[in-house]
Design goal:
This protein has 233 residues and is an alpha+beta fold. Helix content is 30%, strand content 24%.
Length: 233
């Protein structure tokens, strides 16, 4: 019986000396009416290993953590529609002369940085702390479909290649017809000497290639028939 009374007394003393944290979401330009936040919005306070407190949003757009022992905590607000900056909450041990006056301090913290890297202060108190956290940005999970853009369509690489090809196909005959005779003759001479479009060029060889004969094993007879066709003397 004595042990139960001692345990109950110790629990009452610990609750009496525990710190109280209240987090509120004030109205801002980004979130004019915090009451429109969905009921799933909640705040999570993570402390030493194994210590975690979860508080749902209340009607006055606040979160209450009534009893926090001395430790260092990470406060995160989870909402479906808005993002909030994370905070570092430090609750120090109360002095012996005033056990209900635990020093408390709140700073902004940054993910991916060292825990000692503190940002702007969000307030301080003794035994009780009230922190205001504004929404930092809206959450947008959908991307609006863009309308038809004529300039973007024309700037497409495939469209540009098609325009250039069409200009060459329909414009070259007109250019050739209106070309100076001397220039036209020089152009035809250069075209005939080209290794691609000339008489012995790759284009003519591919065009005159006998695929059926090659598959049958037929080889070109170069001079055999001409040599064997002569008369014997």
């Amino acid at each position: 019986m004595f042990s139960l009374r001692a345990l109950a007394l110790a629990l009452c003393v610990s609750l009496a000396t525990a710190a109280r944290l209240t987090v509120s979401i004030p109205a801002s330009a980004l979130l004019p009416n915090p009451a429109t936040l969905p009921p799933s919005t909640h705040a999570v306070l993570v402390g030493p290993p194994g210590v975690r407190y979860d508080a749902p949003i209340r009607r006055d757009s606040t979160f209450l953590f009534p009893a926090l022992p001395a430790a260092s905590y990470l406060l995160t607000l989870h909402s479906r529609d808005y993002a909030f900056p994370p905070l570092r909450i430090d609750v120090s041990s109360a002095p012996a002369e005033s056990p209900q006056q635990q020093p408390m301090h709140a700073w902004q913290t940054f993910r991916g940085n060292e825990w000692a890297n503190k940002g702007p202060s969000y307030g301080a108190g003794h035994g009780e702390l009230h922190v205001h956290v504004q929404a930092s940005s809206p959450k947008d999970f959908y991307q609006s479909r863009g309308g038809f853009n004529l300039m973007g369509f024309v700037k497409s690489p495939m469209i540009l290649m098609g325009i250039v090809s069409a200009a060459m196909i329909f414009g070259m005959p007109y250019v050739m017809e209106n070309m100076d005779p001397e220039t036209k003759a020089e152009f035809e001479e250069m075209q005939s000497k080209s290794p691609i479009t000339g008489s012995g060029g790759a284009a003519n060889q591919i065009q005159n290639f006998d695929l059926a004969g090659w598959m049958a094993g037929k080889t070109a007879d170069t001079g055999a028939s001409a040599g064997g066709g002569g008369k014997k003397k």
